[in-house]
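Notes from the 1:1 (GR / supervisor)

We went over the backlog. Supervisor wanted to see one worked example end to end before approving the batch request, so GR pasted a single chain during the call. The sequence is below; no edits were made to it. Supervisor asked that the structure be written out right there so they could see what the output format looks like.
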Amino acid sequence: MRWALVKVCVAVTTMVVVAFAVPLGLVIKEMARDRAFSNAEREAAAVAPALSITTDRDQLERVVASAGSGDGMAVHIPASDDAKAVDIGRQRAAAKDIATTRGLGRASTAEVPGGSILLQPTALSSGEIAVVEVYVPESEVSNGVGTAWAVLAAVGVALVVGSVAVADRLGVRMVQPAQRLVEGAHELGEGKLGARVPEEGPTELRLAAVAFNSMADQVVQLLANERELAADLSHRLRTPLTVLRLNTASLGDGPAAEQTRAAVAQLEREVDTIIRTAREAKPQTVALGVGTGCDASEVVRERMDFWSALAEDEGRKVRVAGVDRPVRIPVARADLVAALDALLGNVFRHTPEGTAFAVDVHTSDDAVIVLVSDAGPGIVDPESAMARGRGSGSDGSTGLGLDIVRRLAESTGGDVRLGSSVLGGTEVRIWIQLDGRAPVRRGHRGSVRRRRRSVGAS
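Structure output shown during the call:
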């Protein structure tokens, strides 16, 4: 905007300078020419009184010399009945020009090498017409024109430079509020909720700043309300959790009882985390530093141990592959646990008892792929399922499960894909980038399936 305003001012000022300076320069040139010929007319007029009195050569030569024109003046007296023609001084004009002027009876000009001449007719006492010739050199015609043009050019340049300076100051006055508005928008987009912009500058930008600050205040208020609502809703879960925890004490001993008590304890911890996060207004996930993350193989083995007991009760066959060695990923352990529990919970929730499922972990130099597949009826419309995962919720689903998985993958630069598994049901592929680069979108599903067929059941 700033440079655009400067360019516009330069263009407008240049057009104005040209529109005024060019005609003024031509007027100055014409004035200089008129001045030179006016001087020539005065010199010719100085000889006229002498011509009206006498035509004697000696006297006229003294008059011409006293006029101060040097060899620039000449007098041409025509011949008469009792006298010959007299030519005094250096003749530059052509004979026909002299004759024409004598016949017209009025002054005229003609171009000659090196300048111009003024031919001034003068009546003699004998009634004849003499012609006074005054030479006007080109230097006299253009005297002072170059200096005047230089002054005009300097004034024009000064006007253009001045307009650039004024336009730049006006541009700064307009651009700075716009830049502050952009910076404030970036800060607000980065999560700096205290970002505000000064309400100053031109009227339009000042109104934009007012609207931005009002929007930022509303965003802060809405987020505060959402946090309070999340905290309140989470707090309401404590009462039924307390009842569940008390009831688990009467289950006695055994793997199922221990798993139930562990699940209730984990649920209480998750609810407490939600409440603290909402109250403290901190994001639930933060950037991981160097060396942080978790071992995906360990987390998969732990969660499969937990879900295997329920799978055994429902007669489901379970397979785990690719977890025989550590696999470090840049994902917090709690986030990976939540994602796996969401997917495995969907298997138990949306497939009939006895449906088999599997979890495979595949590694490469730049990514880790976690595949959760089942032998259920499958998903008719994967795109709609992913849309539910983005929060719409339908068909008895809250839509949060796939959303948790998607956010986990995208936090590393990866993605989530839904498709058909080799078991005949649904396959959820979680692509986790190890180096933060954009995931490779094509050509992996077939290779993953081929690799998975070569992996035996654990």
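Supervisor's comment: The first strand starts at residue 73 and ends at 77.
Batch request approved.
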